[in-house]
Amino acid sequence: MNSNTINLIEPDASSARVLKCCVCAMAYNQEDYLVLKDVGKLSYFDFSFKNEEKTASVSPVCHFCLKEVVLKHNTEPEVRVVISAKDGKTFNCVFYESDKG
Ligand SMILES: [Zn+2]
Question: I need a labelling partner for 28 at 20 to 30 A (CA). Which of 12, 36, 38, 71 fits?
């Protein structure tokens, strides 16, 4: 059974951590991320994936790269995922192999 876990990373103004997408290397500090996330321009995610063979984790990954990462770690042409936010909200999302690129 494959399982994908995707958590939305919330900006944390008290943290000095710079968020840097490990796919495209786009990086922002927490203050900038807070602003960009508020206006819906950018989200970072923690992605982890588990199947019979392996577990993989990619974090942080920006929303531009999330689809590529999800499809890379799944063999299905259509991948349904649930994205969880810290406040308990969840978002259902479907990624299609045919949209790739
Ligand atoms: Zn990226």
Answer: 71
